[in-house]
Recover the amino acids of this structure.
């Protein structure tokens, strides 16, 4: 019995023959019998190739490679799924137990797939070079995506490939195992040094922790990173890209002009950030004294090792101290005997309340949500992992019972929900519509979770008293928005700088001796933040941030911090929310959940502007919803900063 595909092709051949007859009769006026011999020869060729000449649904004509490419892509995608699962398992074993043995096994697993991947790239290139003969738009998209699979393309030279893997593993090991010592006590980045940065209000102790980490990590990573850039650029040029940064842009967004989009959004949001910066600078000058009231803020005073988020110093910056009694979520979590697992269960309940899936048994059995009791070396940077099965999804996190960790749990579980919703897709489509989508989903949920409405509903803060006056409620709103801005708005320049700096490094515009000086020039220019002490070319301060040695692209976070407000606004409308956007909680709204499910299930099967349009009605990331969300705080800051210097002295042009 002929298959449906065979029937389709037979019908297409017959239709093609009939069309040729009509065309020739129309062109010459002769009867079709005059062309029988010619037609039989053409039919024979068509049948032999099992091809058609009808138009594809996007106007591309099918050619002799159409069926062949579809069959090859289907088989290749299945094989890719098996290989990336093996690599994901080996990587999990490494990052959760960093030893020479787990590193060796990871390198071996990657090396085993290299011949297959090289052959796959060759075949994908062949089909892409003949894409005018492939009418199936899905096949063409899959071919393009498999060509851009992974954060580093395949170098031609075997030793270059091996060296890239070794450098990445070595740098991650350095990051995970580096410690700082004082008076015989050992301090790790997590939790000890991070706790000092977030809780100490002693200028000198903060400086010790900041300097200790940056000095200890930087000198170990500078030379390996310099070599990594060289090797990744070699791999990129082997694959037709001018540098690894260009490859990242296509791999994450399928477009080259992503920096232009970053610039557009940053320029739109800079005035808000400058207002927040001016207010923060004044408060820190009042607290510490030795802070320039018109210049840069020293990086170690902002509650975070990288000065990327400032919410840990909310106690120094709170606009109305008396209006936030009984709103300490961390204290409430501890008072109510929350454990890390209970925090994860709480996050799961939010997702299921809007109709999304519960975590799988594999998730609960295989995730690592607290640092293991044996204190093994591991990456404590929180991450969500998928293993390309239908049930195996995990989170790695050294969870502390704290409000910021509760947000992080929702962020990481958002990744897991995304994994589960698109698990039915082919392997190459099992990723976000673009890289920013994946980062934004959990944070979108957290915008609801951290509202007073939701925290009251789950019993972490008391109900709003009926005795509060309108002015009391206003002050509480400003306090809430300030805390959110210290997390979301303070981050934007940092999120902007990290990859702007790397793109320049990748293009050769920043040389190794200038790595650190250029880093601080950019942070001063765009962020208004300075190094607290003098730094030299021997330092490598960018390497103090996990995503640099781990080689994780960072522009995704910049876009996600904008996009999450677009997503939130759309979901709030579907949930029937009335009132200010910052008060919206989509908890238990299945209408919002249905829209979210439909978008997540698409994975990367369609171009991201199409997915964004289906989600929000907009085809690009826009800052409108963010500015609406923070509107009351923007107005308050402008009044509060009246008469103060807003901004800081910049050069006439951005740093090179």
């Amino acid at each position: 019995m002929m298959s449906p595909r065979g029937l389709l092709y037979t019908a297409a051949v017959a239709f093609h023959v009939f069309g040729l007859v009509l065309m020739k009769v129309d062109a010459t006026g002769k009867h079709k019998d005059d062309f029988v011999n010619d037609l039989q020869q053409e039919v024979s060729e068509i049948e032999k190739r099992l091809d058609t000449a009808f138009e594809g649904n996007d106007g591309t004509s099918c050619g002799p490679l159409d069926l062949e490419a579809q069959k090859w892509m289907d088989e290749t995608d299945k094989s890719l799924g098996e290989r990336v699962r093996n690599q994901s398992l080996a990587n999990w074993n490494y990052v959760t137990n960093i030893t020479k043995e787990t590193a060796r096994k990871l390198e071996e697993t990657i090396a085993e797939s290299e011949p297959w991947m090289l052959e796959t790239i060759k075949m994908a290139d062949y089909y892409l070079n003949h894409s005018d003969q492939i009418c199936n738009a899905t096949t063409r998209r899959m071919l393009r995506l498999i060509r851009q699979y992974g954060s580093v393309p395949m170098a031609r030279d075997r030793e270059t490939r091996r060296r890239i893997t070794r450098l990445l593993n070595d740098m991650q090991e350095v990051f995970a195992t580096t410690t700082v010592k004082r008076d015989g006590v050992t301090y790790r980045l997590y939790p000890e040094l991070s706790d000092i940065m977030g809780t100490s209000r002693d200028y000198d102790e903060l400086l010790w922790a900041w300097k200790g980490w940056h000095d200890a990590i930087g000198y170990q990573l500078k030379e390996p990173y310099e070599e990594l850039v060289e090797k990744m650029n070699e791999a990129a040029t082997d694959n037709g890209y001018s540098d690894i940064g260009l490859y990242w842009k296509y791999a994450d967004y399928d477009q080259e002009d992503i920096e232009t989009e970053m610039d557009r959004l940053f320029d739109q949001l800079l005035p808000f950030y400058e207002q927040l910066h001016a207010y923060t600078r004044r408060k820190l000058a009042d607290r510490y004294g030795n802070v320039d009231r018109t210049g840069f803020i020293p990086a170690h005073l902002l509650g975070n090792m990288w000065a990327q988020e400032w919410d840990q110093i909310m106690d120094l910056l709170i606009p109305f101290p008396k209006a936030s009694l009984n709103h300490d979520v961390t204290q409430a979590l501890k008072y109510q005997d929350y454990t890390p697992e209970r925090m994860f269960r709480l996050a799961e309940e939010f997702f299921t309340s809007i109709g999304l899936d519960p975590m799988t048994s594999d998730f609960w059995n295989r995730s690592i949500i607290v640092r293991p009791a044996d204190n093994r070396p591991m990456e404590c940077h929180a991450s969500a992992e998928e293993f390309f099965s239908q049930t195996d999804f995990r989170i790695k996190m050294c969870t502390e019972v704290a409000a910021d960790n509760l947000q992080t749990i929702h962020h990481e579980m958002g990744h897991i929900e995304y994994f589960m919703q698109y698990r039915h897709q082919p392997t190459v489509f099992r990723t976000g519509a673009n890289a920013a989508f994946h980062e934004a989903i959990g944070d979108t949920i957290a915008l609801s979770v951290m509202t007073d409405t939701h925290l009251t509903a789950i019993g972490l803060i008391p109900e709003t008293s009926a005795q509060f006056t309108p002015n009391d409620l206003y002050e509480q709103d400003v306090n809430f928005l300030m805390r959110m801005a210290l997390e979301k708005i303070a981050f934007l320049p940092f999120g902007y700088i990290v990859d702007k700096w790397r793109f320049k490094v990748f293009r050769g515009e920043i040389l190794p001796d200038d790595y650190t000086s250029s880093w601080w020039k950019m942070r001063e220019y765009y962020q208004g933040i300075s190094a607290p002490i003098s730094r030299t070319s021997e330092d490598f301060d960018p390497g103090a941030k996990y995503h640099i040695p781990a080689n994780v692209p960072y522009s995704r976070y910049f876009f996600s911090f904008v996009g999450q407000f677009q997503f939130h606004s759309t979901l709030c409308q579907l949930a029937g929310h009335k009132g200010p956007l910052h008060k919206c909680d989509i908890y238990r709204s299945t209408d919002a959940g249905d829209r979210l499910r439909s978008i997540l299930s698409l994975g990367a099967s369609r171009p991201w502007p199409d997915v964004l349009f289906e989600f929000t009605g907009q085809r690009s990331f826009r800052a409108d919803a963010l500015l609406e969300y923070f509107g009351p705080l923007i107005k308050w800051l402008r009044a509060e900063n009246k008469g103060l210097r807003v901004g800081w002295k910049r050069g006439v042009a951005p740093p090179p």
Notes: The chain is about 60% helix and 5% strand. Strands lie at 179-182, 185-188, 297-298, 383-386, 393-396, 529-530. Residues 1-57 have pLDDT under 50 and may be disordered.
